[in-house]
Specification:
single chain, about 140 residues, mainly beta, four-stranded antiparallel sheet, 10 strands
């Protein structure tokens, strides 16, 4: 895994497996068996974007999980150049940052190759403030 995130209030651990193109969720009481997978249809497949274009349920090199304030999570989907928001208990994102659509994965967002205010290029770090009113994203380029 590239990183892990622990939700102590719910006894959960998220493992961002960048090379397996998924995030696994574990109960801290049973770290040998994951209870949910993000980015793949099941626990055994590890294809980039599930061998399709990017979508609300696919990942390509996820590098970090952020905990929201309402049992929601954010996944930094680095090679799709975006940050995804997942509502509680859902493996389908409902909001995307860095792209104008879930089906795009353009470096720097629309306008390929041109740096834009809302575009991302291989984001590799992010943080959320304590009241979840701001998200900070670090681009690699």
């Amino acid at each position: 895994p590239n990183s892990i995130t622990v939700d102590r209030s719910k006894n959960l651990l998220y493992s961002a497996e960048d090379l397996n193109n998924r995030v696994l969720l574990f109960s801290l009481g049973s770290l040998s068996t994951p209870i949910r997978v993000y980015g793949q249809p099941n626990f055994t497949i590890t294809d980039i974007n599930q061998n399709q274009t990017s979508s609300p349920s696919t990942l390509y090199n996820p590098t970090q999980v952020l905990l929201g304030c309402n049992s929601d999570i954010f996944i930094l989907d680095t090679y799709n150049h975006r940050l995804l928001h997942f509502p509680p208990n859902s493996t389908v994102a409902d909001y995307v940052i860095g792209q104008t659509s879930f089906n795009l994965s353009i470096a720097n967002g629309p306008g390929a190759g041109t740096v834009t205010l809302n575009g991302l290029y291989n984001p590799f770090g992010a943080a959320i403030n304590s009241n979840c009113s701001s998200i900070f994203i670090a681009d690699t380029d």
